[in-house]
Amino acid sequence: MADEPKMITHIRNMVIYFMRHGRTNYNDLGLCNDDPARDVHLTEAGIEQAQSAALALRDVAFERIIVSPLPRTYQTAEIINRHHLVPIEVHADLADIRSGFEGMPVANYFAAISSDPLRKRVNGGESLLDHKQRVLRFIDWLKVQEDKTVLVVAHEETMRVFVAYFEGNVSDDRLRDIHVTNCEYRHYVLHCT
Q: Can you tell me the distance from the alpha carbon of 111 to that of 8, in angstroms, rounded to the nearest whole number?
């Protein structure tokens, strides 16, 4: 009897830089935003942050930049991309958490979910755990992409999930303890098949 054919799985690595967008007018005002139609844009400080990050990353050989549907991530990516001239792609799973508090103070959102910060959904929004599952779905999507080096520009809530996933040992109830400043970036290696 002939030996069964063996499945050969090719494992490769992707280097991913994850970055939070630059400072925005809504950051200054302390307001929630997950609606791409709202006028939320980088401030002068946010533009300077993105320019500084662009200089720091100018020698990285990005093949693609992936952003959320919210304009502040695309605006940040365009500044970074001046040194790379690679495609910028929008991916819906990178959107900021849908808080249910569009245009309202972030403090009101936190007060509304304080009884169960992980699972509470308010005003038709999603919970932190709903958001986490969406971001994990994005990571699964990345695993089947062919790129060797990519930049992902997203939001602090989304960055928390990336940090917890790649650095490990972060329980769900500690996600909000992870803080990522505007245009802060981290890079990791993703094992792909």
A: 52
Task: For the chain, list residues with pLDDT below 70.
Answer: 1-11
Question: Sheet of 149-154: strands edge to edge?
Answer: 88-90, 64-67, 149-154, 12-20, 185-192
Beta carbons of 186 and 18 less than 8 angstroms apart: yes
pLDDT tens for each residue of 15-59: 999 999 999 999 999 999 999 999 999 999 999 999 999 999 999
Domain span at residue 142 reads 14-192
**Which of 52, 90, 49, 58 minimizes the C-alpha distance to 73?**
90
Record the pTM. 0.92
Q: How far apart are CA 92 and CA 31, in angstroms?
A: 21
- Specify the number of domains making up the chain: 1
